[in-house]
Amino acid sequence: MSNDQRYVESLRAALTGSLADQGALSSEAVVAAFRTVPRHLFVPDAPVEVAYADDVVLMKRDEAGVPISSVSQPSLVALMLEQTGVRRGHRVLEIGSGGYNAALLSELVGPEGEVTTIDIDPDVTERARATLDAAGYERVRVARTDGQFGYPESAPFDRIIVTVTAGDIAPAWVDQLADGGRIVVPLRLRGQTRSIGFDLERSPGSAGVLWSRSSVVCGFVSMQGAGAAHERLVEIEPDKVALQLDADQVLEAVLLPGVLRETPEVRWSRVLLGREESFCQLDLWLASVFPGYCVLTATRRAVKSRLVRPALRWGGSAVVRDATIGYLTSQPGPTKNAVEIGARAHGPDARRLAEELVAQVLRWDEERRGRPDPVFVVHPLGTPATDLPAGPHFTTRSRVITVLWD
Ligand SMILES: C[S@@+](CC[C@H](N)C(=O)[O-])C[C@H]1O[C@@H](n2cnc3c(N)ncnc32)[C@H](O)[C@@H]1O
């Protein structure tokens, strides 16, 4: 073995070790796959130190400069493979190719299994084919097609792993999943994306119900093609403050222009959050209890001028009800590492909405904080309400997703 090869192997071993130490890698099979697959061959233009850093490698942007293709961050790849639970002999479909993850999947299924990876972008499939061949993974099938429709030619699959943010669980994915199969998908719900691992339960005559077994907050490029679900931005102060809504989300309320300029009602919760602590679970809690939930984004200028004072400027919880808007705000806590969460509301029913928001922050703090994410149960859209589990739900293009907090 040359010195260069020894150096590359040492980088790969170091990355694998650090992913195991962080807990991103846990099962023996996935650790072995990470030790084996030469990631540098899938990002041939990057220096080897970059190839073996725990970082995403961006491969392509669209004309507006938005990233549309990448080789994913190793820690996220590891977490998702652990969620997927791929075993030897499995038939696996990967939606969104890069080559690297498909090679790891190929190691996991072994010679008895089968891996198909599909991508909508011909540049990506061409690159994936070439790099998989160069690294010795000629057995992986690569196809250019819109992942929204799965890949019926190789179905059924024991596992489907989607590596691009989806706003829905496409009907084809469920149809092409074998009985007892699992799908792992980065699903965007109310402004947040979670990689959720769902197991399929199919009873005779039913299209199948998906039950989540795990979820991890994550970020991916957005899906293109027939399943593209771009978020909508509704400006409430031109060029300064906007509300972000899921593609399928309907906001029935109508805010009056200039509502943010009305005197606010502000309430504080005494709930402290570490400056580095994530708002994700609190946001999901609020999204599931308030029908008018949306995400507020503001420019630096809007915050500086004190027009809005959101806890998170680039995307914080907000609720719109009739002509009133409320959102989470924060103020310095007793120590420099903590902030206190509160609510700020404007409009005719501001006092009540600010109080309700704070009451829900307190409920989350007492009942949910520090506990695992809820279970998500997914039924086809149109399922009679009597067949759905009790609990708050979100609707997407083809699904009703019930959130079971208990
Ligand atoms: C994050 S990259 C995939 C990373 C890859 N799995 C790896 O091994 O690192 C996401 C990919 O999804 C692809 N994509 C976007 N929309 C798609 C669609 N509708 N069907 C299939 N692929 C899609 C993009 O072209 C992009 O290459």
TrEMBL record:
EC number(s) from the headed UniProt entry: 2.1.1.77
Gene3D superfamilies: Vaccinia Virus protein VP39
One Pfam family hit: PCMT
Any one Gene Ontology molecular-function term assigned to this protein's record: protein-L-isoaspartate (D-aspartate) O-methyltransferase activity
InterPro entries with a match to the protein in the record: Methyltran_FxLD, PCMT, SAM-dependent_MTases_sf
CDD domains, per the entry: AdoMet_MTases
GO cellular component assignments: cytoplasm
Compartment annotation: Cytoplasm
Swiss-Prot/TrEMBL keywords: Cytoplasm, Methyltransferase, S-adenosyl-L-methionine, Transferase
Name of the top EC class for this enzyme: transferase
Biological process terms in GO annotation: methylation
Assigned protein family: Belongs to the methyltransferase superfamily. L-isoaspartyl/D-aspartyl protein methyltransferase family.
NCBIfam families according to UniProt: methyltran_FxLD
Protein name: Protein-L-isoaspartate O-methyltransferase
Record organism: Kribbella flavida (strain DSM 17836 / JCM 10339 / NBRC 14399)
